[in-house]
User: Which sequence fits this backbone?
């Protein structure tokens, strides 16, 4: 039985007097697709923020590949191999699309203080950045100004940037949000290709995607884990159906 | 990162080179003095643009670095040290050290806090300079002589102007080069989205500190040249926070984030002040009105506006 | 150094601190409510002093001059807010810095155009020009009175901000302008009112200080910087921070100037005394980058 890549034990977070994360304990194995679902306000993004380092828990321990990362700064977690995308895609607006993953590569390699060699002309950097864009399927927009891209394209650029960091754990915050039908299908296909390359913790509301892609599903409500297990078990759990999926709805 | 108008750029570069050559060859003392001042202030404005345009930080404290460069040069001159190859690195080093310390403290905050802290620290140097004995207090002092460079005299205004222009262009080229290298990219990424850059492994704080320190060094160099130009230093001329604010004005008059825009802005600003002060003692008021108008009416800098007119 | 001397210096420090508090509270309110950085804050201090000097020269009455100067200042502040400041609330701080810097340049020159370059001296009001016996010390009555006035105003501001509905709106709009607007409050008018209030506070400080110093162009600049140091130390957005910071700065400044030359010799001591409040600021920043009561925003 291999050790989990990511362990979360007893994590609590208070925000402005509200207990947003209440004694959360979760394991994520290498290479697995772990979906986190729950109603709005359940604390899903807060949980992601604590794994990613944007927030520090008030209590509890988070361990990544044996290292205690509970209070580790964001950039150090990134260099350990934790990648992240955000609910509203974050991109480097004054750059072209290609430069975004290029910057991710610079960050990963720790080559950020070079004063002379032009980034675009760094050999492996350019190739890798192009490959990252190709992997998400927007090679045709490589030289477009990023802030002029559509919402869906921005999201793809952000995923490419995160992938450029060669993460072993990828945190995705609602990758399907705001996408049209075609874009959703493409995103699902992309997520499928990413499976296995890295462990993925994905916060999502799109149940089709969750149940077709996830190896494990964790359900959060009011900051607590109310269920965690295989998708079929979660789907059939009466407890989950009442509190989240809705007792009368067809899933 | 924006499409370049290569033919236009070549034309502009040639014009600039010609202008410099013409000024050096035919300019009289007054013109050369003004041109040197433009080059020096342009250099200081470039320093501010590194921090404003590339790091995205509003510093109201760059007069500290400019003034330190000037004061150390002057103080060493009073003590009899005139050789630039010795004096200038010491002066620039002092400014750089100050930038490192102030930056280390100020960069732990952002936004308004950063602005206020840089302003306050610069004021510390201003009041300190007023009080250090032997430096003339609020009235300042005259330098006994201009620096020499490797033994060569810089007294000739033509030589001095060419030196200033050369230094400015060298710094500009180096800084622009760096802006397209990994340092420039990472710094601008931190400016565009600090959360995203950190999530990609970029050490925002250290990058900004490096940029701030380098910027302080450049401003210090400008201060060294300024002391040598005017041969007179006083707190109100080189350490005043009004100078810091004016440098910001110069940068946005051109276009923040291009470096050469800062030089254009400096030229326009100094020319305006020169012209207005011929007509009235109260030129500061008109500058104030112009700045207010620029902020309220023209959203982008002059260069951007011009570029928009030129682009179909 | 006798007790009497210590006590006198302490009273001076208290008075300076309270004047700084009136200025710093304005800075903190303007930022706390409207996210505004306003460098022309010191200009209101200066303009009120000049207005007061002018009115008192016409009328010889302290009370009328006080009210008249403040009224004039308030009108000016409302105009400035409407025309120049209001477009800037949603813009970035760089533009606010530049525009308000422009205002400083304009006002500094305007007062010179109107009142000339020579310093203007404002007389102490007759009834207050005597001394009050505090134990063994003869302390100027005027300074005691302005200290008392500043304390009263401070309490009034505290009450306004923490206990009234308007104060609640003011505090709320700092955090979420859109929500406050949705609640039906006119955020723009609120901003205008706060701006006028802040200007009047600066004006009161200016008028009360005027008889103690020379009224000149640019006198607002140094007060501005000092109030920024206060806010950096105390924390932006916090009224208690403004008070604590102001008193700290005042005491360090007054006692620094008194004792440092004595302790360290005239030259070093004098230089350090000039820089004392900034060194205090640096020390605070190492320990608390956002000020004692400040929160990162």
Assistant:
């Amino acid at each position: 039985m291999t050790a989990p890549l990511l362990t979360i034990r007893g994590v609590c977070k208070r925000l402005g007097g509200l207990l947003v994360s209440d004694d959360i304990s979760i394991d994520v194995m290498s290479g697995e697709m772990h979906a986190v679902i729950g109603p709005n306000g359940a604390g899903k993004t807060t949980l992601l923020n604590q794994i990613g380092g944007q927030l520090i828990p008030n209590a509890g321990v988070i361990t990544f590949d044996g290292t205690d990362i509970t209070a580790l700064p964001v950039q150090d977690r990134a260099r350990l191999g934790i990648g992240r995308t955000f609910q509203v895609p974050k991109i480097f607006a004054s750059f072209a699309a290609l430069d975004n993953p290029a910057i991710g590569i610079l960050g990963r390699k720790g080559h950020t203080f070079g004063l002379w060699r032009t980034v675009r002309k760094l050999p492996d950097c350019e190739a890798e950045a192009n490959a990252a864009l190709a992997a998400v399927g927007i090679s045709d927009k490589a030289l477009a100004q990023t802030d002029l891209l559509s919402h869906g394209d921005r999201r793809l650029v952000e995923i490419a940037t995160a992938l450029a960091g060669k993460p072993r754990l990828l945190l995705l915050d609602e990758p399907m949000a705001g996408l049209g039908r075609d874009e959703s299908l493409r995103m699902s296909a992309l997520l499928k290709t990413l499976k296995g390359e890295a462990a993925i913790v994905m916060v999502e509301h799109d149940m089709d995607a969750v149940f077709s892609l996830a190896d494990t599903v964790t359900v959060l409500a009011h900051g607590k884990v109310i269920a965690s297990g295989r998708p079929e078990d979660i789907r059939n759990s009466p407890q989950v159906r009442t509190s989240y999926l809705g007792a009368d709805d067809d899933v | 990162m924006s499409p370049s108008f290569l033919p236009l750029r070549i034309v502009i570069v040639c014009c600039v080179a010609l202008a410099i050559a013409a000024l050096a060859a035919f300019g009289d003392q007054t013109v050369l003095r003004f041109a040197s001042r433009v080059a020096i202030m342009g250099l200081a404005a470039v320093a501010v643009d590194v921090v404003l345009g590339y790091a995205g930080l509003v510093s109201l404290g760059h007069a500290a670095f400019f003034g330190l460069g000037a004061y150390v040069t002057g103080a060493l001159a009073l003590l009899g040290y005139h050789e630039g190859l010795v004096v200038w690195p010491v002066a620039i080093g002092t400014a750089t050290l100050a930038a490192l310390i102030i930056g280390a403290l100020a960069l732990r905050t952002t936004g308004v806090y950063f602005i206020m802290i840089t302003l306050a620290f610069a004021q510390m140097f201003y009041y300190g300079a007023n009080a250090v004995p032997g430096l003339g207090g609020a009235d300042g002092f005259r330098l006994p002589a201009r620096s020499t460079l490797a033994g060569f005299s810089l007294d000739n205004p033509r030589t001095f102007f060419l030196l200033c222009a050369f230094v400015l262009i060298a710094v500009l080229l180096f800084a622009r080069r760096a802006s397209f290298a990994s340092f420039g990219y990472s710094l601008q990424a931190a400016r565009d989205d600090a959360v995203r850059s950190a999530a990609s492994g970029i050490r925002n704080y250290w990058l900004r500190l490096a940029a701030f320190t380098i910027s302080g060094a450049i401003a210090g160099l400008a201060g060294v040249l300024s002391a040598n130009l005017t041969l007179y230093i006083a707190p109100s001329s080189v350490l005043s926070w009004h100078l810091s604010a004016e440098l910001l004005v110069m940068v946005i008059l051109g276009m923040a984030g291009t470096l050469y825009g800062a030089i254009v802005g400096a030229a326009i600003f100094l020319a305006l002040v020169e012209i207005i002060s011929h007509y009235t003692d109260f030129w500061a008021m008109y500058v104030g009105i112009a700045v207010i108008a620029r902020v309220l009416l023209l959203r982008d800098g002059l260069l951007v506006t011009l570029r928009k007119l030129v682009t179909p | 150094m006798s007790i009497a001397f210590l006590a006198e210096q302490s009273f001076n420090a208290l008075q300076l601190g309270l004047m700084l508090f009136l200025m710093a509270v304005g800075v903190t309110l303007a930022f706390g409510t409207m996210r505004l950085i306003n460098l022309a804050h010191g200009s209101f201090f200066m303009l009120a002093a000049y207005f007061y000097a002018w009115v008192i020269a016409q009328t010889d009455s302290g009370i009328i001059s006080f009210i008249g100067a403040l009224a004039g200042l308030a009108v000016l502040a409302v105009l400035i807010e409407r025309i120049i400041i209001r477009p800037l609330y949603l813009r970035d701080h760089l533009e606010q810095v530049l525009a308000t810097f422009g205002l400083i340049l304009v006002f500094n020159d305007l007062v010179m155009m109107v009142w000339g370059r020579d310093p203007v001296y404002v007389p102490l009001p007759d009834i207050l020009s005597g001394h009050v016996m505090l134990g063994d010390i003869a302390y100027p009555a005027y300074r005691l009175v302005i200290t008392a006035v500043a304390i009263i105003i401070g309490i009034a501001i505290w009450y306004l901000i923490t206990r009234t509905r308007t104060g609640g709106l003011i505090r709320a709009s700092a955090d979420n302008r859109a929500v406050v607007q949705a609640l039906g409050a006119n955020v723009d008018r609120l901003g205008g009112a706060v701006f006028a209030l802040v200007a009047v506070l600066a004006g009161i400080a200016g008028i009360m200080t005027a008889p103690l110093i020379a009224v000149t162009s640019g006198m607002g600049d140094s007060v501005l910087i000092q109030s920024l140091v206060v806010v950096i130390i105390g924390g932006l957005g916090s009224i208690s921070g403004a008070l604590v910071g102001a008193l700290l700065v005042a005491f360090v400044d007054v006692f620094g100037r008194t004792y440092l030359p004595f302790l360290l010799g005239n030259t070093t001591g004098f230089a350090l005394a000039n820089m004392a409040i900034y060194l205090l600021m640096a020390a605070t920043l190492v320990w608390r980058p956002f000020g004692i009561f400040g929160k990162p925003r």
